[in-house]
């Protein structure tokens, strides 16, 4: 994730660095599940779905499906968190022209959110039919 943001961050383009990090997390998730037909919110809704994997719709599992409340909670939380990252951070940063530069500490918080999401994707087991 940091590779996508590093040069922008170092030059003080914090908003663009966060957007680049978001794109990198999206792309790496697409790579892991071999899907280019969906991205961002729809991608994470699919990969963290509690439903069983289907042909062309693999899942990412943060823990084994033991039919527990914890399994359902973890995956629902990951799905919601990803949706929040893209809707609440990436979208405004990418689509709102004329916004002032993000303060460095706010951009760092936003990067941290995408880093959490990236770690979950990296550590998740791929469940494909």
The tally of helices reads 5
* Strand-pairing-aware structural class: mainly alpha
Total beta strands: 2
SSE succession? HHHEHHE
The outline comes out as: elongated
Q: How would a crystallographer describe the biggest sheet?
A: 2 strands, antiparallel
- Average pLDDT over all residues: 94
Question: How far do the termini sit from each other?
Answer: 28 Å
Oligomer: single chain
Helix content: 55-70%
Radius of gyration from CA coordinates: 15 Å
Topology of this structure?
Elements: H1 2-10, H2 14-33, H3 40-47, E1 59-61, H4 69-95, H5 104-123, E2 125-127
Antiparallel strand pairs: 1-2
Helix pairs in contact: 1-2, 2-3, 2-4, 2-5, 3-4, 4-5
């Amino acid at each position: 994730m940091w590779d996508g943001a590093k040069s922008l961050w170092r030059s003080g383009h914090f908003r663009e660095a966060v957007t680049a990090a978001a794109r990198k997390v999206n792309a790496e998730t697409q790579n892991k599940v071999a899907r280019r037909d969906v991205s961002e919110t729809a991608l994470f809704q699919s990969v963290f779905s509690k439903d069983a994997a289907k042909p062309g719709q693999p899942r990412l599992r943060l823990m084994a499906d033991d039919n527990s409340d914890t399994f359902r909670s973890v995956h629902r939380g990951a799905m919601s968190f990803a949706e929040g990252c893209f809707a609440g951070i990436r979208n405004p940063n990418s689509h709102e022209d004329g916004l002032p530069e993000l303060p460095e500490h706010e951009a760092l918080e936003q990067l941290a959110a995408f880093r959490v999401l990236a770690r979950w994707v990296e550590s998740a087991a791929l469940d494909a039919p």
